[in-house]
Amino acid sequence: MASHARQCFEEDYMGLITAQNISKDYQVGEVSLRALFNLNFEIEPASFLSFVGPSGSGKTTLLNLIGCLDIPTAGSLTIAGTDVVGLDRKERAAFRGSHMGFIFQDFNLIPVLTVYENIEYPLLMVQNVPLEERKRRVLSLLESVEMMEQKDKYPDQISGGQKQRVAVARALVTEPELVLADEPTANLDSKTAYMIIDLMKAMKAKSGNTFIFSTHDQKIVGAAEILYTLEDGTIVDRKETGGNGHV
Amino acid sequence: MAMYNILKIAIRNLMRYRRRTLLTSSLIMIGVVFVLVFVAVTGSIKSLLIGQITDSMLGHIQIHKKGYVASIDNLPLTITLPPKAMKTVETIIRDIPDIEAYSPRIKFGALFSNFTETTNIRLNGVFPERELKTVPLLPERIVKGNKDLQKGSILIPELLAKGMKVSVGDSVVVIATNKDGSVNGKQFIVGGILESVTGPGGRDGYIHIEDAEEVLRMEERELSEIVLRLRNFDMLQDVYASLTDSLSGKTNEAGKAIFEVHTWEKLSPFYNIARMIDIMTFFIKIMLIAMVLVSIMNVMIMAVYERMREIGTISAIGTMPGKILSMFLLEGFSIGIFGALIGDVIGCAIIYILNISHITFNFGRQTGLLLETHVGITDLLAVSIIVIIVSVAASLQPAFKASRMEPIYALRHV
């Protein structure tokens, strides 16, 4: 199915993300390890998409490249019309801050900030949004993720599921075009995992962001509308599932 | 606004590791307290001793004929300032408002006899009123006898009085050789006994300047030195520069300078002790800097290591490296300012306690000198600013490391 992705380019369709022949090698001592090899794909705006595959298949590496946390060893990667491979460290940080939201497997909330402040953080420290606008957006998201009552609590005072809801709100507060979630449900029980995926879908439906998440949890992959399967650093399958339920 | 929020996060991070923050701040605080108390005590001792030396004998500045100081141990009568030179100096002195008083002196070596025994003595011929205005602690040194120096009377040092078994009211003879080589003597009544003071002149006696002129058979008044007292001791270098400027242009017929000007520092060996105190203070400050540097650096390196995932997270969501750098620098700054402020408060409290405790100490033969510790706002500010700057400097490397960290590497950290 990797050929299907390549076919997209042949149709000359410019999506939100365009990857052309991207590869990623890691140098471990004198040995070079190939994590991704010659990937080609396009992702349309407002997609709800998942990269699946076993551990070591390259899901996280690919998400890191799309998230501009890392740069490909070869190939070109264009996101929202910007060739991100050519960006330096500061430009990548600025690009992430203005175009992307991140949801992490371990929630990664800032422990010294309250729920409210964690959600507010990107607006305050990254985008310098004025107070009134910040307040409006944070309260709206707190409402959406049903965390209003916990807004003054610190991360160590809430459950794992609640933390991930806060993380979802933090990722969405800047109204990014792209939300990246690396194994967002890995540290959650099944019920909470479904809740988080449903929440992500609901938020996507509401705001039209593109959600890309990686998972190896077969129970939740069915939620994705588009499913890319990776094996040994290459895309072996692309499936449009409609994302109507959990598999 | 952004800086306020960075500071808020920095302070919360410090509060998160409360015990560690308190320990580090305490270490800085102890250093600051130690430095302040040391500066206050040594500064007090130093200024007290300088005051004793300058106000008892030396004065703040002395003016001599060029070449006199090089031969000062011989008390030469050939290197003197004639009346014309004195007039020149007086004209210049009057134009310098920072000079409070001045006293001309004729200094010479003489034989001192109680009619049965003879010893040598260094004598200062002075105008008593002007001398007392210039060295106001002189009367305190007169332990026996009249505090006024009358014509025909002599003030002699205590050790000489004891050695020669002479007391107040006794007749003595002073015999001196004048600059032409002829010898002359004059009888004096012992008017008072002087307590010794440490340093040059500590064993000097005093007579009226007119008596000195008579003993030395001077046809005109030839001064050995002119001693100056300043209104404010802190103006020492300014007045010195001003005098040097004014007097350096005065030359004799051969085109050579007539005068030389010296501050007390060049005339007293105690200056070296004062310098040693300054050097010790400097090294104590270096120790403080090292203490702050090591403790803050240690804490900040730990903080960066422990919060690597957080750094990765904030970096991933787009926080610019400069803000991450500021966050860690502000943590170091906050610890520094906290330690410095608490140290200042405790240091001042200890200094106050030392003052109300009325601690006394002895110096040479002087006993019961009161330790009046004082730390100036300049010292407080200097120590605090050093601590704060060093705290920020010590945080620089860890903060820089945090800001340069690749988020992907930081996020992987367990």
Please, could you describe this protein's structure?
The complex is a heterodimer of chains A (247) and B (414). Chain A has 247 residues and is α/β, with parallel strands linked by helices. Chain A has one domain (2-240): P-loop containing nucleotide triphosphate hydrolases (Rossmann fold). In chain A, 34% of the residues lie in helices and 27% in strands. Chain A contains seven helices and ten strands. In chain A, the strands form two sheets. Chain A has a six-stranded mixed sheet, with helices on both faces. A four-stranded antiparallel sheet of chain A has the order 2-1-4-5. In chain A, helix 4 runs parallel beside helix 6 and helix 5 (131-144) crosses helix 6. Mean pLDDT of chain A is 87; it is low at 1-13. Chain B folds into two domains: 2-53 and 272-412, no CATH class; 67-257, no CATH class. In chain B, a hairpin with a 4-residue loop joins strand 2 (99-113) and strand 3. In chain B, helix 10 (270-306) packs parallel to helix 13 (377-404). The longest helix of chain B is centred in the N-terminal third of the chain and has 41 residues, at 18-58. Chain B is elongated. The mean pLDDT of chain B is 90. The chains are: A alpha/beta (247), B alpha+beta (414).
**Distance from first to last alpha carbon of chain B:** 33 Å
Order of helices and strands of chain A: HEEEHEEHEHHHEHEEE
Q: What integer value in Å does the Rg of chain A equal?
A: 18 Å
Low-confidence stretches of chain A: 1-13
Shape of chain B: elongated
| CATH superfamily annotation of chain A | P-loop containing nucleotide triphosphate hydrolases
For the largest interface in this structure, which chains are involved and how many residues does each contribute?
A-B, 30 and 25 residues
Task: Describe the strand arrangement of the main beta sheet of chain B, using strand numbers.
Answer: 2-3-8-5-7-6
Number of helices of chain B: 14
Measured by DSSP, the beta-strand proportion of chain B falls in: 15-25%
Could you describe the largest sheet of chain B, including whether it forms a barrel? 6 strands, mixed, barrel
